[in-house]
Amino acid sequence: MEEDTRNLVDEFKGLPNEEVKARLDENRNELEVAIENVTHDFNVGTIVRSANNFNASRVHIIGRHKYNRRGAMCTDKYLEIFYWPDAASFLEDQHNRGREVVAMENNVPDCKPLGEKVFKAETTLLFGSEGDGLTTEILSGVDDVRFIENFGSTRSVNVGVAAGIAMYEWTRQVKIAPKKEA
C-alpha cells in the first residue's frame, strides 16, 4: 500500500478527498472568511489553508478568481470557496444571511483593537491586501473594523498571519471558551 503523503491528520489519511470533505462538513464551524484585493497568490493560499485548519464553512474570494493553490496545500479541496465579482454582491449575500462582517484593517479611522472584540458565531472575517487594504466600497458595508495590536516597530503583520490570528481569536471565543464554561 502506498503511503498517503497529503498534509492530513491521521484520521483522514487514506480517504478520498470527497470523504475528507464530507467528514469535515459534519462539524463545520459557523465562521466564514473573505478575501478582497489580495494581490499575492501565496497570501490567498495561506488564508485558505488556515480557514481549513479552523474548519471554516466557507471562503469568499472577491474580485480576482485565480490564486496559487499550492500555497493552500490542497486544502481548498476540503471546503467551499465562493467567488464574487464585486463587493456589492458579496455584501448583499452576507447581510441577507444575517452574518456580521468584521473587516481586519489597520489603516482606517475608528478601527478598534481585535482584543476587545466579542464575536458572535455567524461572523465573516474579511481581509485585504497589505498595500492597498480593503476598498472603500467594501468598508462602507461592513459591520465592524478591527486591527491586531502590535508591540514592535512594524505597523502590521503579513495578511496571512493576520488571518490566522483573527480566526484563532474567533475560535477561542466561540468554540473553545464556551466548552470550558460547561
Keywords:
single chain, 182 residues, alpha/beta, Alpha/beta knot, globular
Please outline the helices and strands:
Elements: H1 17-25, E1 32-36, H2 41-53, E2 58-62, E3 80-84, H3 87-96, E4 100-104, E5 112-113, E6 123-127, H4 136-139, E7 144-147, H5 159-181
Parallel strand pairs: 1-2, 1-6, 2-3, 4-6, 4-7, 5-7
Helix pairs in contact: 2-5
Q: Give me the side-by-side strand order of the main sheet.
A: 3-2-1-6-4-7-5
**Secondary-structure element order, N to C:** HEHEEHEEEHEH
Domain count, please report it. Answer: 1
* Total number of beta strands: 7
Strand-pairing-aware structural class: alpha/beta
Output the number of helix runs. Answer: 5
Please give the largest β-sheet.
Answer: 7 strands, parallel
Radius of gyration, CA atoms, in whole angstroms: 16 Å
**Low-pLDDT segments, ≥5 res:** none
Amino- and carboxy-terminal Cα gap: 44 Å
| Share of residues in strands | 15-25%
CATH class: Alpha Beta
Task: Report the CATH architecture.
Answer: 3-Layer(aba) Sandwich
- The chain-level mean pLDDT equals 89
